[in-house]
Amino acid sequence: MTQKDITFVADFLTEHFNEAPELYNRKGKYFNVERVGQYLKDEDDDLVSPPNTEGNQWFNFLKNSTHLKESPLLFPYYPEKSLHFVKRQMEGVINQCLQKPADVIGQSVHQAVCMSLYKTSKSEDSTPQLFKLPFLWNDKTSNIHYVLFTILENSISKIYILRRHTDTSRSVSNGILAVDFGNFLNNSINESSDSRCYSCLDAHFYDDETVTVVLKESVEQEGKERVLAQLPLS
Question: How far is the C-alpha of 132 from the C-alpha of 134, rounded, in Å?
Fold first, then answer.
């Protein structure tokens, strides 16, 4: 060790582990603990060496503000407590804030419609994931909710579009429909091939009137074709 290292350690011990007679009657050790570690202890006891807030601009600002001093919007400060204590206090307040909206929203949600999309076996172990890439879109102009999704297995070349009016008492025509990509691109890609079939890798709404899809060739071969297509909802 160099003299610099020894000096550094000696300074650290001198600063943080001096005897503190004023702490003799308190629970715990009779000297100041390392000042960072005390904040991280998961206990409700007061800090052995609380911070000095004298001259802190924020505290002075609050103290001199008649409106902010008692404001319920400001989270209370606990200068004698560790961060774990403050974290638990804050979690309790946040949970309390979220509970009421959760109750109100939960009571207001109800089933508007029920559609049977597919059937699976009763054994959960053998049931594959058939519902894929649901994407939600809200058309605020016409007040319609859209859901894009695919169903794997027999419908790999189809994308389904489900739409519902935001006013559940109103209905829309073609509430659910399927777009079959299949081999509809053959004429534009390769006119002589009848074997090209496309499935949907991903789909998102581009805007209120357009859907963007990523298609791939279903044929198992190297250098599969990838197509980015934009389809008008009309």
Answer: 6
Distance CA 83, CA 80 (A): 10
By C-alpha distance, which of 34, 47, 121, 127 is closest to 80?
47
Predicted structure pTM score: 0.51
DSSP state of 190: -
**What tokens were used for 17?**
């582990």
If we measure between CA atoms, which residue out of 110, 135, 131, 111 comes closest to residue 120?
A: 131
- CA 67 to chain CA mean position, Å: 35
CB 153 within 8 A of CB 164: no
Checking 36-39 for CB contacts under 8 A at 24+ apart, the result is 38/82, 39/82, 39/83
Residues 185, 198 contacting (CB under 8 angstroms)? yes
C-alpha to C-alpha distance for 210 and 205, rounded to whole angstroms: 6
> What is the spatial distance between Cα 233 and Cα 202, in angstroms, rounded to a whole number?
16
Report in angstroms the alpha-carbon separations of 192 from 10, 104, 174, 181, 187.
Answer: 85, 61, 35, 18, 8
pLDDT tens for 13-36 read 777 666 666 665 666 554 555 666
First and final C-alpha spacing in the chain: 78
Instruction: Compute the distance between CA of residue 44 and CA of residue 220 in angstroms, rounded to an integer.
Output: 63
Output the six-digit token pair for 60: 């002075």
Report residue 195's pLDDT band, with 50, 70 and 90 as the boundaries: low
Query: Which residue bears the tokens 């609380």?
Result: 50
